[in-house]
Amino acid sequence: MSEQDSMAPAGTILSLGAIRVADLAKSTEFYTAGCGFDVEREFSTPGFDAVILRAGSAGIELIAPRDDAPAPQPGNMFVKFVVNTPDVPALLAHACGYSGVEEMPATALPEFGGITIAVLRDPDGYRVELVERASETSRQSGDR
Predict the structure, then answer these.
(1) DSSP one-letter code for 33
(2) Which pairs from 97-104 meet CB under 8 Å and 24+ separation?
(3) pTM score, whole prediction
(4) How far apart are CA 125 and CA 113, in angstroms?
(5) pLDDT band at 137 (very low <50, low <70, confident <90, very high)
(6) Cβ–Cβ < 8 Å for 70, 76
(7) Which tens digits make up the pLDDT trace of 74-120?
């Protein structure tokens, strides 16, 4: 492996952690009014509703599943780490070369502003979602 192959794409940053919540509005109020976080954005998918909150550059994504998922309990509430990168396919391939396991290939999502995401599992089985914004390649930064 060459030195070039051993480096992750420049500009890769940890964006946020994501947790499941039972009551999205109540949890959002806790983190905003109670802890001083700001709402960055809210969105929905067919499977869940979510709110992304920021305190400076640190973020947390609150996820409320819509299906018949069991109620959140300590131990089953952590969802994923979100990592922003200017090159999802390159980082996915790179991480898989270091014991990562691809769960979802790099997929463009035009319905979410043109982001590209991929999901992999780390060596312990934790989910890591890689996110590339459509404009990230040109500006080399940004947050989910």
Answers:
(1) I
(2) 97/1, 97/5, 99/123, 100/128, 103/127
(3) 0.68
(4) 29
(5) very low
(6) yes
(7) 777 788 888 888 999 999 998 998 888 999 999 999 999 999 999 99
Contacts of 25 (CB under 8 A, 6+ apart): none
Task: Report residue 99: phi and psi, to 5°.
Answer: 75, 10
The residue whose two tokens read 């499941």 is 20
Buried b (16+ CB within 10 A) or exposed e, 48-82: bbbbbbbeeeebbbbbbbeeeeeebeeeeeebbbb
131 exposure class (CB count in 10 Å sphere: 0-12, 13-18, 19+): buried
3-state helix, strand, coil in the chain (%, to 5): 20, 40, 40
User: Rounded to an integer, what is the distance from CA 143 to the centroid of its chain?
Assistant: 10
* C-alpha to C-alpha distance for 106 and 90, rounded to whole angstroms: 10
Q: Distance between CA 27 and CA 64 in Å, rounded? A: 10
CA dist 73 and 61 (Å) reads 17
Asked if residue 140 lies in contact with residue 133, where contact means CB atoms within 8 angstroms, the answer is no
Helices (H) and strands (E) counted in the chain, each on its own, are: 3, 8
**Which DSSP letter does residue 143 get?**
-
